[in-house]
Design brief:
With 309 residues, the protein is of the alpha/beta class. It is 54% helix and 9% strand. The protein has twelve helices and four strands; from the N terminus they run αβαβααβαβααααααα. It has a four-stranded parallel sheet with strand order 1-2-3-4.
């Protein structure tokens, strides 16, 4: 990577910086200040980290030892201060998880200021060591297929009772993706980003990012409609006007906070709003109703709970 990035930066400059980039890394990226600076210098905008859980016992269970050797919240903040937005992957349902894991996940995601928290229940995929272990110990739920929406959220018999796991997962999602929680984390992250070194660089970066993201916002419109910046702003205003009222209030409050406190991050605020629409609608229109239905169906279902020595 350190050999590639200077070449990529030169290519970007020679071609007018036509792209932004994203990547995935382990959390020990936070320890390499030069690599972080090189990524930001090449227009990398965000990085996905497999954080998984704030539980050290569960991290050891999943062999993510690099996540146990450093304060995870501070590691995320260090990456944000370098200028990269952090996406985080989180999992509940490990054998070491207890009933407090849902509150611990909520508190961690909030403290780390990770707007884009991708949260799932542990699933054993065929061909993995976890699948083999669950198979050998009789803990595969053979009534559930492993793929798609038919998994029942997990295909293993967990230590946490299944109803407890799904009810906690529901609360974790419903809390994390309320508009207030989402935009509070987003603002906290953006406010931590470094300021451009000069006014000229600040204006250049705002203009470049704003143009790029406004173009993304109106993608799918006719070429004529996408012609002028004024037209694109009108389209953006129309999109915001069509948002659900509760979401729109928080989105506008977020925009105003960014304008007052870190206006150079305004262009990043726009994709944050659009991404948040997906999280908000998918969570509250699809996942939460599905979880409610499953929990209702489980009321009279005896719970099978794994026993782990």
């Amino acid at each position: 990577m350190k050999r590639l990035l200077p070449e990529l930066r030169a290519w970007n400059q020679a071609h007018g910086s036509p792209f932004i980039y994203v990547t995935e890394a382990s959390v020990d990226l936070a320890d390499d200040a030069q690599l972080l600076a090189d990524l930001v210098g090449c227009n990398f905008q965000w990085v996905f980290l497999g954080i998984e859980t704030p539980s050290v016992e569960s991290l050891r269970e999943t062999l993510k030892y690099q996540n146990t050797k450093r304060p995870l919240v501070e590691s995320v903040h260090r990456i944000q201060r370098a200028g990269l937005l952090v996406y985080g992957g989180f999992i509940v349902g490990f054998d070491a998880d207890r009933e407090d894991i849902f509150d611990r996940q909520i508190e961690f995601i909030r403290a780390a200021a990770i707007p884009n928290a991708l949260i799932g229940v542990l699933v054993a995929f065929p061909g993995t060591p976890l699948y083999k272990r669950m198979q050998q110990t009789g803990r595969l739920r053979t009534s559930d297929v492993w793929h798609g929406a038919e998994t029942g959220y997990t295909n293993i018999v967990t230590v946490l009772p299944r109803r407890t796991l799904l009810a906690g997962y529901r609360r974790l999602l419903a809390t994390t993706y309320t508009p207030h929680e989402y935009f509070a984390r987003a603002f906290d992250a953006l406010a931590r980003f470094p300021k451009p070194g000069s006014a000229a660089e600040r204006l250049r970066r705002i203009g470049w990012l704003a143009s790029l993201f406004l173009d993304v916002a109106v993608r799918g419109r006719t070429r004529r409609d996408r012609g002028s910046l004024l037209t694109r702003v009108r389209v953006l205003r129309k999109i915001i006007g069509e948002l659900p009222a509760a979401y729109r209030r928080e989105a506008l409050s977020f925009l105003w906070a960014v304008l007052r406190r870190c206006p150079d991050q305004l262009a990043r605020a726009l994709p944050t709003i659009f991404m948040g629409i997906h999280y908000y609608r998918f969570t509250f229109e699809h996942v939460i109703p599905d979880l409610d239905q499953r929990l209702a169906e489980m009321e009279d279902e005896p719970d099978r709970v794994a026993s782990v020595a």
